[in-house]
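Lab notebook, bench 4. Still working through the backlog of constructs that have no structural model yet. Next entry is a single chain of 271 residues. Request: give me the structure tokens for it.
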Amino acid sequence: MADTNYKDLPQHALERLQGLRNANHPGGVFTSDLSVNEFLLVREAGFEPIGMVVGSSIYHIGFQQANYRSNEELQVLSQAMYHARELAMSRMEEEAQALGADGVVGVRLEVGRYEWGEDLAEFIAIGTAVVSREKGNFRTMSGKPFTSDLTGQDFWTLLRAGYRPLSMVMGSCVYHVAHQSFRQYLRSVGQNCEMANYTQALYDARELAMERMQIEAHNEKAEGIVGVQLQEKSHGWGSHVIEFFAVGTAVTPTSSDHSVPTPQLILSLND
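Model written out:
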């Protein structure tokens, strides 16, 4: 590991990284949260796992009052959820950078709550740092290690298809869903009818999360996003406040003249 000063990393993290197998410490051991199949396929794709990398941020989430009968985004909460994840991701990337990794595969983003802090949440990013055995630039446009939440199998298939991961991209929207008035409730009792207020609220919130994820991919000069997940959670805010979180891996072709194998060929390569 280089002598660079990684100010966001605790001392014990630096000591752990010193013992991992990397260019500056070839006698170390690697760690990985990949399954056995994923580990073997990542190696088959030309990459060596060198260490599990972690980023964490315990974040105080502020308060924002919502209008009882209004569909609206709670921007204070949206910004908190996004920024806290970014802090965790950046610290995980910093560990990968310290190892001299080309990228991080199998990234998981988790949010945990603890009894000792009602308004606190821990945001954790975990993945396996890898280094390429072949010459070539697999880093992002800004020179950082790439990040991807693809499984080892999907990572292998992506590379075989002529694409490479650039970075995980994400978008968050915390939204307040308006309460029904008593009159609206009475009109719907015993009726088959769409609850237009709820439909519009959830539709808008999902679209905001998806749009923000796409903007990140556009900024990375990506061709597309694969493995997109759209998650919905309330995080204890109550039944009428929900977060929509969109996340995926932005990808780009490995060359300007690449050709994508047929699905039959990809299936045969997986066998």
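Notes after review: Residues 75-99 form the longest helix (25 residues). The two ends are 37 Å apart (CA to CA). Flag for follow-up if needed.
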